[in-house]
Design brief:
Uracil-DNA Glycosylase, subunit E; 5-stranded mixed sheet; disordered N terminus
Length: 208
Amino acid sequence: MDDGGRSGGAPALSPEDVLEGLSEIAKRIEGCRRCPLFRHRTRTVPGEGSGDSGIVVIGEAPGKEEDASGRPFVGRAGRILRSAMADAGLDPGRAFITNAVKCRPPGNRRPTRQELEACRPWLEAQLRILRPRAVVVLGNTALDSLSGILGLRTTIRELMDAPLRAACPWGECWVLGAYHPAYTRFNRRVPEILRKTFERALKIVRGD
């Protein structure tokens, strides 16, 4: 049976241990005061999904609907993302979907470097528990955050052309990139690009 591509690192945690670990991180995020964003949030948005597919998806930051619900990617961009995942054959509930920043920036602006750095330890903690085989970053902000964890030197464009094999703290993993689904308003090919990216991620975790 495929171990989710986690070979080369510590043994994978049980689903129960993963859920418990993610729940503990989510509780700690609720009390986070590491950057000024806590003053503006309605709810924190730590992420959701079992992650048992071996795939983690990282976006930029919660928007208005996410801030209200406490769930990632539930607005228009989220519908585009989840549709692309399903079209690729990936159940969104079996991936772990999160953002580089767990609180909504005012006016949906891009997170500052200070905010990214303050929130990065939460993302790293989630990744260390999930130990994904494939990480899909959606846009430059997500890539910047992950690069601070893995020491990457690449671009979204390069990742769209070819996944990057990386030495992750939990073992070998692959980093894939795509445009953020919100970019669909500027480029109608984004849903197709997303679908192909998730098809590629599935091939990686399956060892095809």
